[in-house]
Queue: 2 jobs
Job 1
Amino acid sequence: MRNAFAETVFELACSDDKIAAIVADISPAGAMNEFRSRFPSRFVNTGVAEQIMIGMAAGMAMEGMKPFAYTIATFALYRPFEFIRDDICYQQLPVTVVGMGAGLGYPTLGATHQAIEDVSVALSIAGLSVLAPCDPYETRELTKICASGSLGPTYMRIGKAGEPELSEKGSESDVVVGRFRRIRRGKDIAIVGYGPSVKVCLEVADALRDQASLTASVYSAHTINPIQESFLEELFGIYDRIVCVEEMIQHGGLADVLRRWRDRADKPVEIIAYGLRKEFLHVYGSQADLAEAHGLTSRRISADLLVTLS
Amino acid sequence: MVVPNAEERGTDIRRCLRYREKILELSQSVGALHIAPAFSCLEMIDVVYNHVFDMSDESADRFILSKGHGAIALYTVLADLGVIAEDEYQDYCKPEGILGAHPDRGVPGIIASTGSLGHGLGLAVGVANAKKIMGLPGRVVVLVSDGELQEGSTWEGIMMAANLGLSNLTVLVDANDFGGMDRMSEHHRAFYPIDDKFSAFGWMVSVVDGHNHDSIKGQLIKTEPGKPSAIVCQTVKGRGVPYMENNPIWHYRSPNEEELAEALVALRGGSDA
């Protein structure tokens, strides 16, 4: 996904001289390197200094530029939190903060590098759009939208490398901010995730089909904020049950957004949520190993759902 | 460089006396005004707007008040220039008005919302860098307090401004030697001298009397290719009102009626108006 992001930013920068990349000591591999050599003045590496990465991105936006501020998710969002809040959001400047390897994307590096509460933190700030593409395709589409400047202040969490494209035959192709993208169509239940958890959602849908003859729709919630009211009306009108799977702590994330909307709109829809434990686990291994330690695997979720739904 | 003649100097002094009187008068209608920190940076803001900046509608010059708690000094100068309407000025910190105790982007003449310290310099680096990238004219001046130089973020900005060679950027340091609590040269001794720290990062640096228009202006009109510039302005917190000078309680307090009368007498007696 980071390659899809970097390639897209580079392509857009070729035709739009207002686009800039401000990074904080992140390895400029692939297209980011090309961006740097082709547009040296529009590429700034602030070094290990995230507050100035955000502050100067905001200042550049004040003069009409559309900067992307990009580094590892924990350092992109947590270290300069107040700068994102005051410099970008309070002043409504079109800066896109891109957090790479969000969720459990750095499974051997410990909690310092694991942005397991990023969506909750980002959703707490007024006026910040929160995006979470699930695959390289959505990353490209959303990067284009961010580059237009129309979304205003934005936090986009992306993965690292090697994520598969998740679209199947029948998947919706349009990536529309404010709506979830339906990856698979079913009729019995909706399963919603974002980022790396969408792959888990598809596996859960497979298990429900094979083991309980239930067909599930699977949605990629690439936009967590803002979500269009009309889309939620549509979603809550179709399904009696919505399963929400997040590679993020179960506190202040998408499931809470959906529950709050359901309660306000008074919809008789059950929301069943899965996410990461709100704990620092001192566990190392693959991303799958850490997801297992958190209990966030398709095997565990489908086993639990089969009991809940029976 | 055009050195103002004696008559002009008098005009500068009279103008700043008028600004101080206006701020003291306004202090009677609101609870808290940050008078002392505004009085320490008043001449600096006055020079920026009344002597250095192009004030036409097409102006490309940009000013950021990083020490947002000096806002009333900025509003007073902007109101004098007609950028902020007088009735808005009188509605300072009132629900029907638009002016708060800290600058807010979108208010006429204000490009940056500040108040939390350590933000303005980073924003100014971004504005100056964008101008450099796009080949746009205009100066970027950011006014920081000496207290906010204790913020690490400020030093990230000082490092980057020098790395990027932003000669269109000038930092004015309001060196009044006081944070909210202490005289800093006593309690944060390792921090002094300030100018050496900027020099070490490759900035063009000067130290001036921050209440002397000629001195501030003399440095503010200088630039050096490839280098940002810092002007350490030595100032007195509460300048002009003896009982406020260097007294931390006037960081935030407003004078009562009797104190106001005493302040006005002191101000007028101390001027050549």
Job 2
Amino acid sequence: MGITVESMLQAVISGFLLGGLYALMVFGLQIMYGVMKVINVAHTAYIILGGYLTYWIFELYGIDPFVSLAVTMPILFALGYITQMFALNPIVRAPMITSLLVMFGIGSIIEGVSTYLWTADYRSVAPRYAGTPLLTIGGLTFPTTRVAGFLGSILILAALHLFLVKTKLGKAIRAASQDIDAAQVMGVNVTRVYAFTCGIAIATAASAGAIVSMIFAIYPAMRGIFTGKLFCICALGGMGSIRGAFAAAMILGLAESLTGAIVTLQWSPIVAYLLLIITLLVKPSGLFGR
Amino acid sequence: MALALLPLLRLEAYFLHVILIIFMWATLASSINIIAGFAGYVNFGHVAFFGIGAYTTAILMRDFRLSPFLMTPVAGLMAAVIGALVGYPALRLRGAYFVIATIGLAYIFETITFNLHWLTGGGVGISVPLPPYPMLVVKTLFYYAMLILMLVEILTIYWIANTKIGLFLHSIREDEDAAEASGVNTTKYKMLAFIVSTFFAGTAGGLYSYYMSYIDPPTVFTLAMTVTMLLMMVLGGKGTILGPIIGASILTLASEAITHFVVSELNIVLYGALLIVVILFLPQGILGILRQRFPRLRRILR
């Protein structure tokens, strides 16, 4: 594909749509760090698990991935809640390396269980509307699944934003992320807030996984690729800043897509890391970093 | 002493293999201990330097027929140079940010290695022919090579721990700002620790590629290796001299046992479970526990 205006515009569209998905994926990471100061290296494992659950429900009952979110999200919310209660709350005061290793361990367990249950074969969810573009303007295609994924991501993120700003629990979570001691003094139940935050984070991972299963083909070891990209987004946007993460996610989506169109697809994974390196050299705390 | 004489007993090659692998992991775990245990900077991309060293000897052997045994220090130097280049911007970050920045390291190098296939053979990898001697002789050669490497490293760490370098690194770990305010040149010592740690990781990698006689990007750049090194370090006791060695021994033996008796998918699950158990219940490491229970032995159990 040569460098034509058309191919560039298509790349921009694809990048934009992809960026929305990345933003959803990285949201869970960000709130977990913002509130609990935990770097959840297993986040991508949960995402892929969400994808597999969606796949399972789709294959067994034929339920559309967006509809099955009503089931997958609560399941993974519960999983996140349990993870926080039993694996992370006990080590709240421990140095960072502790939670890193624990979450890596959990990630490995999830990957192992996923391989056992669904094998390492590529799986993907293909509802009837997959493969057909939603609309085609000129020579530009808007693939249905990607647009649906993008809209889904935006909706969920918007809902979460409202939750964090308008509801009592949401405000408690935000308070906890700003200053946990002050929040406790004001009556916030830290244990519950932590568990809820983790639950929400993992639930969003489920939704991201559902979308991923439609757009990409998933396999258990896939989490490695996404882990790298998500952390680059976090570094670029600033750890703990949701706005920054959103901006960085869009930037990465666009950068990857454009690189894929201009150079070749093989080099696009490295775009994330190039951005990371540039961030480190120019402004280490990220775009909106604290 | 006993270790040096071990190969003279007519043991099976497999036995030598396991012990030499223990030496290698001890080297790796100790190397990450320098930057993560002593200085408190958890380099989640440490395996990248192992891979760099591995590829260095492999390429030198393939293109110039230079003996990897001789080139191992070169591999280490290569890793150290890249370590310096990476460390300089990365070490400016603290805590979580440093971890995030380094998490990508291994993957970056894997992708670079994969794409520069004119140099590295890309996904096909590089085959490094073994020396043309009988199996037992070859294993013995590598046994001694790994043993020497490990001993050199232990001596280096012993030296670091007992001079002001170790003191400064500990102070950086405990409270970097206070250290800086007390006049410690934190940048210099962090860089020193980082470079030394990457040197040894690279050297181990250099030997490894020769021993395995084949490498490709996924094998030498896996995040799981870094985690294993960290786990060994924590299990044995981070920030100690003997800790990583103890951790490496136990985990390598456990891993060999598991792979022999358990089906492959359960493998990774057990590994993850082990990780969690060790971290939750043994954060101070075996050495930490021993030091608590036998205070009088503290001078030996360093």
